Each structure stands twice: as C-alpha cells, then as structure tokens.
Amino acid sequence: xxxxxxxxxxxxxxxxTVSRAxxxxxxxxxxxxxxxAVRKWVVSSATLPLILLRDLLVIYMIFHAWAxxxxxxxxxxxxxxxxxxxxxxxxxxxxxxxxxxxxxxxLIGLRFWLLYLWFGVAAxxxxxxxxxxxxxxxxxxxxLLMAPLAVLQxxxxxxxxxxxxxxxxxxxxxxxxxxxxxxxxGTFSFTLGYSTFxxxxxxxxxxxxxxxxxxxxxxxFVMAVFVCFVIGSVVxxxxxxxxxxxxxxxxxxxxxxxxxxxxxxVRAAFAVVFGAVLVAxxxxxxxxxxxxxxxxxxxxxxxxxxxxxxxxxxxxxxxTYDSITWLGAGLGLGSNLASYVRTGDTTVFALxxxxxxxxxxxxGLIGYALTALxxxxxALGVGKSIKLAYRQHxxxxxxxxxxxxxxxxxxxxxGQLTAHGxxxxxxxxxxxxxxxxxVDFFPRRGSSA
Length: 449
Prior knowledge:
Blueprint: H1 2-16, H2 20-41, H3 47-67, H4 70-73, H5 75-97, H6 103-126, H7 129-141, H8 143-155, E1 176-178, E2 181-182, H9 191-210, H10 216-234, H11 239-259, H12 263-285, H13 287-303, H14 306-315, H15 336-343, H16 355-363, H17 365-392, H18 396-410, H19 417-435
Antiparallel strand pairs: 1-2
Helix pairs in contact: 2-3, 2-7, 2-19, 3-6, 5-6, 6-19, 7-9, 8-10, 9-10, 9-11, 9-18, 9-19, 10-12, 11-12, 16-17, 17-18, 18-19
C-alpha cells in the first residue's frame, strides 16, 4: 500500500518534465522545418544526410515507445498497425517477385507507406503532457521565424538569394504568384512544404489562442503567433493556404461562440470581435499582398475550374485510372526520393501529380485498401473529436481533426519527403488530443499538470 503512495510524487514529476520522447519529437519537427533551409542556403547536397538523420530519429522514437511499453499499452491501434505493416511488406515482396519493383525502391516504398505512420502512433503513445505542451510551444514559435522570412521573400525579386531553389536554376524556374512576386517557401525547399506547414500550424495556433493565459507575456506571445500566422498566409501566394487558413479562422470563431457556456460566451464574443478587427487591420496593412492573391485566383480560374481541381485532389486524376493494375507499379516508385535515387532530381514524381492517384498506381489492390483505411480513420477521428469538443467546450479537437483529415486524404505522404514528415507529426498531434484532452498549455508555475 505504501509503495504506490511513495511513488506518486515521482510519477507526477515525470509527467511535468519533458521526457526523451518529447525531445526526439521536437528534434524531428525542427529537422522537417529547417532541412530545406540547409539545402537552399548552406549545402545543396545535404538531402540524403538530412533524410537519414530524420529517419534515424523516427526509428529511435518507435523503438523507444516499444521498449518502454507505451505501444504495448495501446493494444488496439498497435495491433492494427502490425497487421497493416505485415500486409504492406507482403505486398511489396509480391511486387518484387512479379518484377514490378527493385529492392531499393521497395525499401523506399516501405518508408513512405509505413515508417512515419508508426512514428505518429509511437510519439502519441510515449509523450506525456509536458512533451505535448513543449511540442506545441516549439511549433508555434517557429511561426515567429517563418512569417518574417516569408514577408522578406514576398517583397524580394524572384532572383534574390532569399528565393534560391535547391536545384539551382535561373529566375525563370522559380514559382511565382504573379509576374515579379514569388510564391513564398519560407525555410522549405518548395512551395508545397510551406503550404503544408501552414495547414499543420492552423489548429495549433488556434489551440494556444483559445487557451487560458495567465500572464501578460503569454498573451503577447500568443498575439504575436496569431499575427505571424495571418501574415504568413496572406503573403504565401498560395490559393490552398489562403482558403484553408480562412476556413480554419471561420470555424474557430464559430466554434468558440457555439461551444462556450455561460459567462464564457461573453468572453468568447469579445475575443471573436477583437480577432476579427485584428485580422482586418492586418489585411489592410498587407493590401498589396492581398491584391497579388486576388490576381492569383483570377489567373488560376482562367486555366482550370476550381471545383474540378478540388475533386482531382481528393479522388485522383481521371486519366490515371486506366493505368491502374491489380499488382501496382511498385511501392515507392512514385516518390520524389525514388526519383532522386534514380536521377538526382527530387522535383519529379514518376507516376502522378496527386496523392489519390499515386497510391492506386503504386499499390494496385493494396492502394484501394489504403484508401479505405484512410476513410475509416478519418470517420473515427472526426466523430471522436466532435464528442471531445462538446465535452471540453473547445473547438480545438474539431479544428485539429479537420487538418488531420485533410492530411490523411490529400497530402503527398507517399510521394513527397516534407509532406510525408509533416503527416507523421500531424498524426501525432491528432492522437495526442485524445490521450491528453485536458492539457493546459499555460500551466501555473510549479503545477504538475
């Protein structure tokens, strides 16, 4: 009887300090965010060493979570992951025997189809509340770097060093929103990484924005983060970033008003009005960037129908369905890593442009199985997040699983290195909200929560 009581303070201390799992998760996050900057502005040949470093950290997290019993405690999800992993490995070997793959491409395929899914599950199982809190604080702090960098890129000419590409090339090869104005990349090597990063950051920003702040410094910090998020979205030159950030802001405002109870509803109304005014001021201050975005929408609408593009992203390119075989072309063949290993170029996707098509072309029948699995995970996660949101009177779980759903269904996770890494991180955040639903992002000093 006395042993558990004596051990309680030590258990509380462990929960209130950042553990090894938390440090590894933060290291993976920072590597994903900053590796593009290293490749653009320091050493362009650092692609494979940085990927190796990140993957080693990911593998360590998985083994750490297994060794300390964290994964074994989550029997249901670990069992599903083990079964899915066996199926993917068996299918990859079948493709190898059928002459549709090579050992190197198969290893790459197993990385893209399995490794970072395991990372997301392992991280969520192993991280305590202090880890979760620290990861969120580090994540939102990166916006304080990303937004000023994006503003500098936006107002610099395409040929400026700040807008350098990894592959080198001349000014004509740089992606622009309109003539003379780049699509910002921040620390990432390509525009897709920047857009995906801002999608990941949206629910986390609104989590700290809606959290209780206990000091003026905390309030100013959160205000700065929110301002950087809005500015970084406005100057992105990306339709996806602008649309999704606007959608998330609207859902946050509505959710905060709808879910607040009693006196909290008055505070929520005040916060929504203040937030709307602040956004309006920022849009006025960056009206030139807003005009660029408007021109970007007009030009894009002349070349493609918006809703056709949306349907293509979610359901795949119609032209690729005739090329799908039951065995598939080979797991990993459509990834930019496979292209880099074969050609030295990470900007080319061998099979398809969008994730939905790439999965089916690579995997064949198992691609359809993965698509079905994604839909089941999204349905379960969204349903659980809605229940949690009503129980906690917070829109954060809904916002988070909106982004997790988008990530699972559309991000280029089996094709693009950065998007793949961000999906693993996003999945971990999505599972952590269920494991630590009452986490206080700004706890009282000395609190063990």
